[in-house]
Specification:
This protein has 182 residues and is α+β, with helices and mostly antiparallel strands. The protein contains 4 helices and 11 strands. The strands form 2 sheets. Strands 8-1-2-11-10-9 form a 6-stranded mixed beta sheet. A hairpin with a 7-residue loop joins strand 6 and strand 7. It starts with 6 loop residues before the first helix and ends in a 7-residue tail after the last helix. InterPro entries: CheW (IPR039315), CheW-like_dom_sf (IPR036061), CheW-lke_dom (IPR002545).
């Protein structure tokens, strides 16, 4: 019988490079700068019915409809309270299906901090437990100024395919007849 490594050790750790750091729910997170397209102020969100709870709505970005995801809700930690520094980071994601197309998504963050250079020596493999979010959402943990920065795996956190499947499950659930009132 083949012995399997824990998930944290079997996947590739994040690579050195530039990262956009932001705060969310009191934690410090980072996304690779290459997947981040722009940062905009929070506002002008149009709610869309029958979406998963973590999809807060859509915005019109220069004529394109861009879905906006509440990362805190995506992590199962409630919704992000809107405050003065709340922003939306526009991120380009690629589909995991055969078409390989890309999709722009917005993510709501408490505050955008800065772009930082993180060296490979400062990156640890992601923990297999204890962070409070799904392990496949994390590419690594970076040590910076005496704190850990959670390096997010954008293709997993913002998987268009997974979010579409979750939306379909929610729509199917609403389409079922209500048997509780019978």
């Amino acid at each position: 019988m083949e012995e399997k490594l824990p998930a944290a050790q079997s996947k590739q750790t994040a690579l050195a490079g530039q990262y956009l750091t932001f705060t969310l729910g009191g934690e410090l997170y980072a996304l690779g700068i290459l997947s981040s397209k722009e940062i905009i102020d929070y506002g002008n969100l149009t709610e869309v019915p029958m979406m998963p709870v973590f999809v807060r709505g859509v915005i019109n970005l220069r004529g394109s409809v861009v879905p906006v995801v509440d990362l805190l809700a995506r992590f199962g930690k409630g919704s992000t309270p809107i405050a003065k520094r709340t922003g939306i980071v526009i991120v380009e994601t690629t589909s995991e299906t055969d078409d390989g197309g890309s999709q722009d998504l917005g993510i709501i963050v408490d505050a955008v901090n800065e772009v930082v250079e993180i060296g490979q020596q400062d990156i640890e493999p992601p923990p297999s437990f204890g962070v409070g979010i799904r392990p496949d959402f994390i590419n690594g943990m970076a040590k910076r100024n005496g704190r850990f920065v959670i390096l997010l795996n954008v293709s997993k956190v913002l998987s268009v395919d997974e979010m579409a499947a979750l939306s379909k499950v929610r729509q199917d659930r609403h389409a079922l007849p209500d048997t509780n009132n019978a």
